Amino acid sequence: MRSHPVSNRWFVVFGAVLIQLSLGAIYAWSVFTPALKEAGWSKLDTQAVFAVGLATFAVVMVFAGRLLNTLGPRRLAITGGVTLGAGYAVAGLAGATDFWVVCFGIGLIGGAGIGLGYVVPIAVGMRWFPDKKGMITGLAVAGFGFGAMGWVKMAGSWGHLIESHGLASTFVIYGAAYAALILVGSTWMRLPPKGWQPKGFEPSAPSAAKGRENFNVVEMLRTPQFYLVFVTFAVSAGAGLMSIGLMKLYPMEALQASGYGAVEASAIAGTAMAVFFSLANGIGRIAWGTLSDYLGRRRSVVIMTASQAVFLFAFAGMAGNEYLLYLGAALIGFNFGGNFALFPTLTADIFGNDRVGQNYPFIFLSYGVGGIVGPMLGGMLGDLGNFPLAFSICAGACAIGAVCMVLVHHPDHDEAHRPASVHGFMHQMRWDLLEDVIDHAIHPEHFQRVSPAAVRDALPAREMVQRRGMSR
Length: 472
Fold this sequence. Notes:
By secondary structure, the chain is mainly α. It contains 20 helices and no strands. It folds into three domains: 1-193, Growth Hormone, Chain: A, CATH 1.20.1250.20; 213-429, Growth Hormone, Chain: A (Up-down Bundle), CATH 1.20.1250.20; 431-471, no CATH class. Mean pLDDT is 84; it is low at 461-472.
């Protein structure tokens, strides 16, 4: 893989934001759903394309992590941009209303383009900014959130592209714009020379410890930490993606039930999604990334997922009021954006900085799982007329994710090479005592009474000194 110095490392951030502005196309999908419903699509149909795009995005990103080493970041970003643009062009040139063509063009081809390009700004940004890893990752992925706001408004109330040019032409225009922005941003997607550090940067002892041991993919997959992080990301992302898919449809119904007219309800719901959710989504990426540099990654994820559970549960009572809707959309969007700043850096902290480009795509597969389950759940319950239940289910899932993250700690590298077993899993989770209690309950004959003197003899000398000091 080629690496070149860049005259100013902040150009890397500029290029990363340009790329992510285009890759955020997937979050602008909701602006197209009203026109597609008028063309005869069901709510489930609109969410199915969104879900396929998210799942393809996540799966292709695994292969992109490997291609990063062979193609290099610049060429991989260009490939992603061309693929994304081609997907939207295919959907537009075919008329934009045939479900299978749109699903193939935007869901499969477009999703693949996003997956190819997404890992590049994250991996390159972390290598150029080891001193500001959380903040820079947040900045790099902020464009993904901010981009949705711009693309939604250009197609709707600002640019009126759908109204003036039609849905098909809008798809083609967007495809060309996505490819062009990514081509420009890829100019600065180059890795620093091996061993490069910013001037005056000396990692502290705790920072050096994080990411010191680099786990390869196979080793990472053998740790319980991987699965705990995977589940947490899946439920947190799935809840946010379900919210994105319903952020216009559900508030429109709730507002009309509260007495708003159809046109007014549509405008308010569109503003909630295009402005408040999208803007907070981008701000949340920067804010959570920066906060995690001070609070720590694990603690930040616990706070984010626990508070998201509260916001999702409360949203059903907020959607029917204009100003409460704006507040709810902003809070959910803020926490949703935090996922994309926290989980890449959490992956680097736990499994190593040097291999984050290869490891994070496997963590990111959880986003694909959430991308299928969340939107499909929302679509099915929406067709049944029960949007609030979808938000309540996702709230409970986020609470479970917070508990999973509490259990995460830095794994022992040596244990990744041991044969997989229940005992090994319990040991890596530091649940040995719980394992002994369970074993004692099932097989009491395996245990015998041990005298206090024998326990004292088994204690390390250092611990005995500590106990004597505590008893004085």
